[in-house]
């Protein structure tokens, strides 16, 4: 009608290194491009315009991307024509210099209004940008989860402060009001969507942000981080499978959208704007070559097959091939499975925990002028299991994708007892995997009674050396900060490279050699 303007928002989130399709031909940026181009074409023929946004976490997830610092992913995003992205917590998995490189590579802004330099009042990223879409001015504000410093290598974010988005939003709205003239404001976030605002132990997410703001000031939130399809039935998640219709959340007059993860879906929101009011005419989560099992147990397309865009495919192919070459060389073999599934490894000692702590402590013993008595590994840093059979560098990097330096420290028996008492009671990702230890843990008192350490009876008067990753030494998972300890040494070698070397030196592993001893940690 008269004065009615239309535009289409296209969105994805939590790419996590998935520039390429998986081995079943699902998702991938080339097929994503085909879908996006088709939407743009259709919208423009009908006199509309589009904007393409990402809810962040481009980094970390598959070795081919991780080894190439997500360059293929950013090259792909440029080809697909992203207009802006939120800064995700995993953007900080590499040093800031890598993130700066990625910012330079990206033809679009990374937005975050709530990340500041610690020692000044300056923001690290652009807080918002105004886009003109079909004659409408839309301010897009970026926000990043305040949990980031808790779940990231402290070294990478040490110079930064993350402020509360709920407090930052009114400030940015005031800045926009003062400096711009816009028709509407969207938030592009990496904070998570938690139904009805039930965010549990996570930081508050998009629902709480929408509810916190003065009604009518924020028209939509395009999110990420919780990696769910935000398709609602009232205040609860609908039972959603590929191809189903999806109703985004709507809280306090704000639409909230999120498109699962890995580019599995492209979110499409067709908006109409009239007399200062925004309505959602249509919403869809479009599956990107997702497959489901049929009755015969074969995979078939959940909806229809999408032909990957050949230019994007050919441009990204050399990155994929380079990644494959680096990764597929067989380096070892195991006669059984090494357990790293998150529910198991975050709750009990496993053979993979023993293998890792052994590899790291043996590396210290072999390569430095000390003997490591034991190793410590945060279970949250163990990202996958290793199946029986051949082991390649790909497997190594899938288990240890973060690229932490292996480090070690020598402490007095008294210090070590205090340290173990603090980490032994951690839960979730902080639950420790430990080898060569036997101790009773009293969680209520926060105390440990150590019987044996490093294969000998524990003695408060002796010194002990242990290996751990730098992430934990720097206070990750709220472990005691020990990287300032006078006897702390960083080997400058990454966990994956040390782990890899262990496999190369042990070409025939037997899982029985790494079985955790009963009662190693007795709770
Ligand atoms: P997101 O939802 O943003 O993808 P996530 O999936 O990584 O976050 P979790 O799977 O709960 O969240 O993992 C968090 C745990 O990962 C932390 O508790 C920590 O143990 C581990 N972790 C995070 N970053 C690192 C790192 N750089 N090195 C080692 N371990 C890490
Ligand atoms: Zn995230």
Strand-helix topology:
Blueprint lengths: L4 E8 L16 H17 L4 E5 L8 H4 L4 H10 L3 E3 L9 H10 L4 E2 L3 E3 L10 E6 L2 E9 L9 H4 L2 E3 L2 H15 L4 E7 L15 H7 L7 E3 L9 E2 L2 E2 L11 E3 L2 E4 L7 E10 L2 E11 L3 E3 L5 E3 L8 H18 L2 E5 L7 H4 L5 H17 L6 E5 L10 E4 H7 L5 E8 H12 L7 E3 L2 E6 L4 E7 L2 E2 L5 E7 H4 L14 E7 H11 L2 E2 L11 E2 L1
Parallel strand pairs: 1-2, 2-3, 3-4, 7-9, 9-10, 10-14, 19-29, 20-27, 24-30
Antiparallel strand pairs: 1-15, 5-8, 6-7, 11-12, 13-14, 15-16, 17-18, 19-21, 20-23, 22-27, 22-28, 24-25, 25-26
Bound molecules: adenosine-5'-triphosphate and zinc ion.
Low-confidence stretches: none
The CATH superfamily of the largest domain appears as Metallo-dependent phosphatases
**Strand order, largest beta sheet:** 4-3-2-1-15-16
Biggest sheet record: 6 strands, mixed
Oligomer: single chain
Mean pLDDT level: 95
Beta-strand segment tally = 30
Q: Give the amount of beta strand, in percent.
A: 25-35%
Could you say which small molecules are bound to this protein? adenosine-5'-triphosphate, zinc ion
The CATH architecture classification of the largest domain is 4-Layer Sandwich
The percent of residues in helical segments reads: 25-40%
Organism: Shewanella colwelliana
Pfam families: 5_nucleotid_C, Metallophos
Protein name: Bifunctional metallophosphatase/5'-nucleotidase
Domain 5'-Nucleotidase C-terminal: 331-483
């Amino acid at each position: 009608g008269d004065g009615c303007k239309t535009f289409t928002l296209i969105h994805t989130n939590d790419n996590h290194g998935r520039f390429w399709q998986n081995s079943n031909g699902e998702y991938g940026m080339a097929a994503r491009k085909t879908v996006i181009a088709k939407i743009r074409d259709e919208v423009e023929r009908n006199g509309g315009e589009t904007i393409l946004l990402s809810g962040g976490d481009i980094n970390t997830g598959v070795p081919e991307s991780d080894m190439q610092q997500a360059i293929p992913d950013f090259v792909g995003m440029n080809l697909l024509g992203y207009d802006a992205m939120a800064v995700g917590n995993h953007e900080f998995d590499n040093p800031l210099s890598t993130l700066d490189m990625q910012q330079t590579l990206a033809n679009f802004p990374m937005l975050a209004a709530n990340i500041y330099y610690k020692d000044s009042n300056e923001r690290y990223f652009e807080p918002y940008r105004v886009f003109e879409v079909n004659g409408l001015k839309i301010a897009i504000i970026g926000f990043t989860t305040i949990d980031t410093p808790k779940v990231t290598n402290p070294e990478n974010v040490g110079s930064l402060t993350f402020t509360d988005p709920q407090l930052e939003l009114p400030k940015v709205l005031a800045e926009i009001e003062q400096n711009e003239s816009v028709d509407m404001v969207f938030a592009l976030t990496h904070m998570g969507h938690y139904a009805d605002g039930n965010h549990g132990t996570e930081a508050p997410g998009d629902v709480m942000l929408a509810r916190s703001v003065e009604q009518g000031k924020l028209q939509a939130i395009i999110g990420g981080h919780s990696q769910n399809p935000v398709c609602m039935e009232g205040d609860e998640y609908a039972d959603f499978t590929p191809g189903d219709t999806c109703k985004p959340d709507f809280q306090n007059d704000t639409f909230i959208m999120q498109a699962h993860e890995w580019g599995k879906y492209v979110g499409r929101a067709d908006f109409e704007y009239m007399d200062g009011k925004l309505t959602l005419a249509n919403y869809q989560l479009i599956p990107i070559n997702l497959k489901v099992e049929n009755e015969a147990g074969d995979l078939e397309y959940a909806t229809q097959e999408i032909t990957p865009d050949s230019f994007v495919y050919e441009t990204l192919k050399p990155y994929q091939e380079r990644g494959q070459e680096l990764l597929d060389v067989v380096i070892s073999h195991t006669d059984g499975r090494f357990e790293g599934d998150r529910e198991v490894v975050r709750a009990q000692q496993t053979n993979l925990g023993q293998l890792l702590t052994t590899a790291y402590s043996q590396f210290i013993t072999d390569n430095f002028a000390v003997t490591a008595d034991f190793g410590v590994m945060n279970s949250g840093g163990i990202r996958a299991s290793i199946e029986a059979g051949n082991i390649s560098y790909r497997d190594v990097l899938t288990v240890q994708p973060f690229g932490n330096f292996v480090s070690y420290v020598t402490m007095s028996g008294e210090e070590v007892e205090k340290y173990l008492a603090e980490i032994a009671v951690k839960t979730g990702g902080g639950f420790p995997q430990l080898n060569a230890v036997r101790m009773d843990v009293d969680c209520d008192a926060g105390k440990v009674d150590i019987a044996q350490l490093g294969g000998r009876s524990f003695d408060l008067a002796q010194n002990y050396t242990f290996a751990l990753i730098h992430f934990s030494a720097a206070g990750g998972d709220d472990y005691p900060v020990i990287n300032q300890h006078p006897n702390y040494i960083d080997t400058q070698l990454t966990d994956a490279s040390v782990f890899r070397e262990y496999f190369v030196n042990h070409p025939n592993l037997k899982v029985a050699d790494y079985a955790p001893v009963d009662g190693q940690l007795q709770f």
